[in-house]
Amino acid sequence: MSFTLILNNIAKHIHLTADEQTIFTGMLRPQTIKRKQFWLSDGDICKHSAFVTSGCLRGFTVDKNGIEHVLSFAPVDWWMADMYSLISQKPGMLNVEALEDTEVLLLSKINQEALYKQIPKFEHFFRVLVENSLVASQQRLIDGLSLTAEDRYNNFCKRYPTLIYTLPQKQIASYIGVTPEFFSRMRKKVVRST
């Protein structure tokens, strides 16, 4: 198994020695998640962070009317977890589903805590991930309150450039907070104006 992708991801923020890389990779567990299979379901306690090495995950909630609301996607080289549940170790509200056959490397919360003691610079790495996630969530909330659907779509395209043409339109529509029908009309208008 190659750990190059995850080690390169970590190297963006911290430098690991060869020994530290060995300790870290020894704590990872590979898992395959089949297309449409759930990695997490509403009510589960999230015990791992998942790093996507192939495929794509989506995180979503379902409201009382059965309508799905997509909160995030995790394509290759992204991390995914139900942050509330992972940190609090209480049942979460996030569903995480594979949009295609997906390979992930799992890091358990227990091993993450052990990393902080064995290799303290991992605290910096995971703090940066959490801070980036918080900033993105806050910006998304502000965008949802103040931007047009077209502007939200443009922000989606900047955030997930590899997913624009691979995701079903209804998934993108849910992410930007519009109906699939509205999204289809809006996208045709955007294409005509370019």
Describe it for me?
- The structure is a single chain.
- With 194 residues, the protein is an alpha+beta fold.
- The chain has a domain at 4-119: Jelly Rolls (Sandwich), CATH 2.60.120.10.
- Helices cover 47% and strands 22% of the residues.
- The strands form 2 sheets. The chain has a 4-stranded antiparallel β-sheet. It has a 4-stranded antiparallel β-sheet with strand order 2-7-4-5.
- A hairpin with a 5-residue loop joins strand 4 and strand 5 (68-74).
- The N and C termini lie far apart (44 Å).
- 24% of the residues are buried.
Topology:
Layout lengths: L3 H8 L6 H9 L1 E6 L4 E3 L7 E7 L2 E6 L5 E7 L4 E2 L2 H6 L6 E4 L3 E7 H10 L2 H26 L2 H11 L9 H8 L3 H14 L1
Antiparallel strand pairs: 1-8, 2-7, 3-6, 3-8, 4-5, 4-7
Helix pairs in contact: 6-7, 7-8
Protein name: Crp/Fnr family transcriptional regulator
InterPro entries: cNMP-bd_dom_sf, RmlC-like_jellyroll
Organism: Mucilaginibacter ginsenosidivorax
Strand order in the largest sheet:
1-8-3-6
Helix content percent band = 40-55%
Listing every helix as H and every strand as E from the N terminus to the C terminus, the arrangement reads: HHEEEEEEHEEHHHHH
What fraction of residues sit in β-strands? 15-25%
Question: How many extended strands?
Answer: 8
CATH class wording of the domain at 4-119: Mainly Beta
Q: What is the end-to-end distance?
A: 44 Å
CATH superfamily of the domain at 4-119: Jelly Rolls
Judged by helices, strands and strand pairing, the structural class is alpha+beta
From the alpha carbons, calculate the radius of gyration and give it in angstroms.
18 Å
Main sheet attributes: strand count, strand direction, barrel closure: 4 strands, antiparallel
What low-confidence regions span 5 or more consecutive residues with pLDDT below 50?
none
- Report mean pLDDT, rounded to a whole number: 94
**What is the CATH topology of the domain at 4-119?**
Jelly Rolls
Tell me the number of helical segments per DSSP (H or I, 4 or more residues long): 8
InterPro entries: cNMP-bd_dom_sf (IPR018490), RmlC-like_jellyroll (IPR014710)
Organism: Mucilaginibacter ginsenosidivorax
Protein name: Crp/Fnr family transcriptional regulator
